[in-house]
Amino acid sequence: MTNGKYRRWIVAGVPTIFFILLLSFSCQAARPATNPKDPATALVLTMPQAVKMALKGNDQLLAGEQEVAASRAGIGMARSNLLPHINVRERYMRTNNPTYGFMAKLNQQRFTAQDFALPSLNAPNPVSDFQSSIGLSMPLFAPQAKLGLEMSKIAYKAASKDLQRRQETIALQVVTSYLQAKTALEYIKVAQQGVKDAQEHLRLAKLRYKNNIGLYSDILRATTAVKNMQQIETTAAKNYKVVSRALGLLLGLTTPVTVGKDDFPVLLRPIGEYQNNAAQRQDVKAMELRYKNARNNLRLATAGLLPVFGVSSSYQMNDHNKPFGSEGDSWQLGAELKWNLFDGHRQSSAKAKAIHQLQAAAKYLAGLRKAVSFQVFQAYETVNETTHNVELAKEALKSATEGQRLVNLRYKNSLSPVVDLLDSQISLDQSRANLVARQNERQLAILTLSYESGMILNDLHAHSKSAGAKK
């Protein structure tokens, strides 16, 4: 066996499969391996179960629920501008100011003729005044406040739609992490099988050397192959642990999650069905609501040119000795009309700003609809691509399996060198790992298509119900 051929195997053989496996893991989100016998990692979930748990425990979704609740509270704040306002006030004052002292005694209804004396008017003695009052005010015509209430309701609906879309996004992340964990678990099996195969090659090399029909260099090469496959197995085990822990993080846990053994077949629909449903996607609905609010914002700017009319009333008690005293009492009823005829062009500028914001919202909405249509198309083409790649990977695995079998026979009969045997084994290991990755890629592509069309939660729910019915 030549040194050149030996170097070719070292450079292009084991490093190749090591790189492919390592790259596959590094391109996937992390998630840890779990041992069912370990109480800390005993949580085994199917994909729909994992998604269901994430929808209840994911920290981003819990934060989003609070944001929606805050938006709902904003409706009450806007409505308050149309409802009566009642306030109670207690005020204490002590003064020798002639005007305030004069007014305080009048309100307390203890003003006498002596208080008209010029010395008393010009330099009164200090006067204490406890003033208790209750007031009510209510707008009767307030167009801006009414529009503000309508806009707050629309903003709440938009926030709710955003939360639903965020739920779909988290569901896709869970699905992605779940499938990555399944791929990582299969890579462990592939690596373990690769170790067994390499150990068998080492056994044959030792046997041939013992019987004086092989070279000691073959033993060294086979030993190197075993060590390299063991390194790959170690890396695969670590990657699975990381991916499993990442899945648990998406579910709001600090412990890893073990993937179930169930299959998750999602039927591929015609592309027209996906495109039709994508028009009803939650983020599209949210953008439509925001466009509606942009139009309301223009109305709001125009409403600033209209008058505001309201009524008010109050009841007041005054006492110079104690709080809430009633030496004197009085009441007021009033009405107010406020019309802003000129404010330095503020309202006209606000209207111009609202017009530009409305046009921008229209462009954003049109762009989003186009983008959604493209995303569905792209996802559908990815499904077609991954479907074709799965078939090619299956054929490649068949060829690699048969090629490895033939080279193994030739090596046993001293018709092929050990480097050919190791090369064929590398090709077989790569084909095994590639098939697992391509199958999970296709499954993820279908679920991504469901996500892009806004159907992923329905698809997961439907599968969960059908799986439960079968049980």
Highlighted features:
four-stranded antiparallel β-sheet; 68% helix; elongated; two-stranded parallel sheet; 471 residues; single chain; Outer membrane efflux proteins (OEP); alpha+beta; disordered C terminus; 11% strand
Provide an overview of this structure.
- The protein is of the alpha+beta class.
- The protein has a single domain (3-86, 141-306, 344-470), classed as Outer membrane efflux proteins (OEP).
- Helix content is 68%, strand content 11%.
- It is built from 13 helices and six strands.
- It has helices at 3-12, 14-26, 47-57, 59-79, 98-107, 118-122, 143-210, 216-250, 271-278, 282-303, 346-412, 418-452, 456-470, and strands spanning 44-45, 85-95, 127-141, 258-259, 308-319, 328-338.
- The model is unreliable at 1-41 and 466-471 (pLDDT under 50).
CA-based shape: elongated
What class do helices, strands and sheet pairing give? alpha+beta
In CATH terms, what is the architecture?
Up-down Bundle
Number of domains: 1
By CATH reckoning, the class would read Mainly Alpha
Assess the beta-strand content as a share of residues.
5-15%
Number of helices: 13
Following the backbone from N to C, one meets helices and strands in this order, namely: HHEHHEHHEHHEHHEEHHH
Which residue ranges are poorly predicted, with pLDDT under 50 across at least 5 consecutive positions?
Answer: 1-41, 466-471
Task: Give the helix proportion (percent range).
Answer: 55-70%
Give the C-alpha Rg: 39 Å
Describe the strand arrangement of the main beta sheet, using strand numbers: 2-3-5-6
